[in-house]
Design a protein that fits this description.
- Helices cover about 5% and strands about 45% of the residues.
- By secondary structure, it is mostly beta strands.
- The strands form 6 sheets. The protein has a 16-stranded antiparallel β-sheet that branches. Strands 2, 4, 5, 6, 7, 10, 15, 16, 17 and 19 form a 10-stranded mixed β-sheet that branches.
- Strand 6 and strand 7 form a beta hairpin.
Length: about 650
């Protein structure tokens, strides 16, 4: 079919050959259409075809005029979409005329070979003709059908239980295309629900599927004699909603406008060089696995569904537990249903465990998720957070290094707060670009309750530092700053700035100095600038005591850019990594609206993250006593302000 309608595009590259080195498809580009409702498609990904075409009717005697108006194409809220939002291409009728939209990646993304996939819901009514398709990028010079056309999905209202997948080229085009129909059983309509439409495009064959089931395979070896196979050159993607035309015929009185063609997402994957014998793909691995101990001899494990199921519905999960990270020792497996959480009540108090999970569909079992490491609590309250430290860049104005901490309990608590600059420039740290003259101020609310500039070799501070195991400051005349304070229960903030208005790297530390009483440091946080390379925001904390401790660690970027904080220049995509020594024991990029994390945040009084699809990162972990480091960097190599928080979860 010639210059027809609707394609779903996924990419941001120009003309690569998409070959995966792994045995499964690898996502290379996507548009999840998860921006704010009412906005239009991302102009960095999509352009428009406008008007009535040349010749009028887009070569098919279609009735619509294409526009770029938000009345014809916009993101909408849709609870049936995977993230609650979808793109709506909306056909409108007025005074016997029709308007709609046709978007394309012709100027932004083209590729050769790979998987094109869209989850979409078609409109309803005679005369409606939505499509998801691709055209050869050389159409301007080669013309149609020489350029080639891949129709991943076309649907017309006269046959609501059918979709068609087609190839067009010289020798097989228009009514003589190579095509097949996929028919829903029981006369069900494609308008009733979302479905996943895809093609796997290889050099010598193109495989069409719907909801993970293959219904058509077109091979280069099977095309008509004397015809061409142009499917070895770059193609671009199109999504459109035509009204009327040679294929569907005109609307009739039963068709009610406006009508929407809803697209949940469009994704493009690279593929292995050769297809699997089954021609279908097992789901991708589950994401964001969390394991922590909510009580003695218990471990709560949760995860999120895979990003990619490749169309086939998930039938369940397989959860594994082992006592070693290679999953070779003391292995236990649970075959679960569709739940994305499990409470392990067979854990031994004080033992260390590793958990991982795989997703299962009719097309196979995924590779396992990353491993989540945890300890099982022996008894509540046997450990605590004893100190936190943060290294980051101190800027000017409001870009100082900000550390927050809470004294929790019924009695005063003695704390040591230090701000290092010159001390970490010296051996053995040798940190470059340090702040030469840290000014340390401690706030209660908006009031400064103590400040220091230059510790002056203070003996009580030196003794307290030695008592808590802090590294020694050797130069009593250095510009490093410190405060030893006894504070009532409440929230406090330590702010480090350059005393002379200068900038540089500083280390701020808050230590629990042992003193009689029932109070403790219950959470610690720091806000600072995240640079590139070694310029990440680094927060250290210590679990002190005789048994494991459950902690919540969060790295906010988008969350503090929004009201009521409105922090400028925030990090858009925090990557949070937790280290024990030099080993990464857990990481997260995008918290995904995790229920256990949201519940833990509420329980400790942390401010709520309102957007489950934000790029803020978080981890909920049960850790043995010891020293740990949380490092925040930009997942995309970018920079900005982030807030790191470590909470003691009772």
């Amino acid at each position: 079919m010639k210059w027809r309608t609707l394609i779903v595009v996924l990419a941001a590259l120009m003309g690569p050959t998409l070959r995966a080195q792994s045995a499964t498809p690898v996502l290379v580009w996507s548009d999840e259409f998860n921006q704010a409702a009412g906005t239009q498609p991302d102009p960095a990904k999509w352009g428009y075809d406008l008007g009535v075409g040349d010749p009028p009717g887009w070569g098919n005697n279609e009735l619509e005029t294409y526009t770029s108006s938000p009345s014809n194409v916009l993101v909408v809220s849709d609870p049936a979409a995977t993230d609650g939002r979808a793109l709506a291409i909306r056909a409108q009728a007025a005074n016997g005329s029709y308007t709609s939209a046709r978007i394309k990646t012709q100027a932004t993304f083209s590729f050769t070979y790979g998987r094109m996939e869209a989850r979409a819901r078609v409109p309803a009514g005679v005369g409606c003709w939505p499509a998801f398709w691709a055209l050869g990028s050389n159409i301007a010079t080669a013309g149609w059908p020489t350029c080639g056309e891949i129709d991943i999905m076309e649907w017309v209202g006269q046959t609501p239980s059918h979709i068609k997948g087609s190839l067009h080229a010289n020798g097989y085009s228009g009514g003589q295309s190579l095509n097949a129909d996929c028919i829903l059983p029981g006369n069900a309509s494609y308008s009733d629900a979302y479905h996943v439409f895809a093609v796997d495009w290889y050099p010598d064959q193109i495989v069409f599927s719907m909801d993970g089931a293959v219904y058509e395979v077109q091979k280069k070896s099977g095309i008509p004699a004397g015809s061409q196979w142009p499917f070895d050159l770059p193609f671009f993607i199109i999504l459109n909603f035509a009204v009327g035309g040679d294929f569907p015929g005109p609307p009739n009185s039963s068709t009610v406008f406006p009508q929407d063609f809803r697209i949940d997402y469009v994704r493009v994957y690279s593929l292995p060089a050769t297809p699997l014998a089954s021609l279908v793909w097992a789901p991708g691995p589950p994401t964001n696995i969390l394991a922590y101990s909510p009580g003695a001899s218990q471990v709560s494990v949760s995860w999120q569904a895979p990003l990619s199921t490749f169309g086939a519905a998930l039938s369940g999960y397989a959860l594994e537990r082992a006592s070693d990270p290679a999953f070779t020792q003391n292995l236990t497996t649970w075959n679960l249903g569709g739940s994305t959480s499990y409470l392990d009540t067979t854990a031994h108090a004080g033992a260390a465990y590793y958990y991982r999970v795989s997703a299962v569909s009719a097309n196979g079992t995924s590779a396992p998720s990353g491993a989540a490491q945890t300890a099982a609590l022996a008894s509540p309250g046997s450990s605590k957070l004893s100190n936190i430290s943060t290294r980051g860049f101190v800027g000017t104005g409001s870009s100082g290094l900000i550390a927050g901490f809470v004294v929790d309990g019924s009695s005063p608590k003695m704390v040591l707060v230090r701000a290092s600059g010159p001390a970490i420039a010296a051996a053995p740290f040798n940190v470059p670009g340090t702040l030469p003259d840290p000014l340390l101020q401690v706030y209660s609310g908006s009031a400064v309750i103590a400040s220091n500039r230059g510790w002056g070799g203070n003996a009580p501070i030196a003794a307290a530092a030695a008592g808590v195991g802090a590294f020694a400051w050797s130069d009593p005349a250095s510009g490093d700053s410190a405060l030893l304070m006894t504070l009532s229960p409440g929230a406090y903030t330590a702010i480090v700035s350059g005393a002379s208005g200068d900038t540089g790297v500083s280390l701020v530390e808050v230590y629990d100095v042992q003193s009689p009483g029932s109070s403790k440091l219950s959470n610690i946080s720091t806000r600072g600038f995240v640079g590139t390379g070694a310029g990440g925001l680094i927060a250290g904390f210590v679990v002190d005591g005789s048994g494991p401790k459950t902690v919540l660690v969060r790295a906010s970027g988008p969350a503090i850019a929004a009201a009521p904080f409105n922090v400028p220049g925030t990090l858009p995509d925090p990557l949070l990594q937790i280290y024990s020594g030099s080993t990464v024991i857990a990481s997260n990029q995008g918290w995904g609206g995790s229920g256990p994390i949201a519940a833990a945040a509420t329980g400790v009084g942390a401010f709520a993250w309102s957007d489950p699809s934000s790029n803020d990162a978080a981890l909920l972990m049960t850790l043995f006593p010891g020293a740990y480091t949380a490092i925040v960097s930009g997942a995309g190599g970018d920079t900005g302000v982030s807030l790191v928080e470590v909470y003691d979860v009772e």
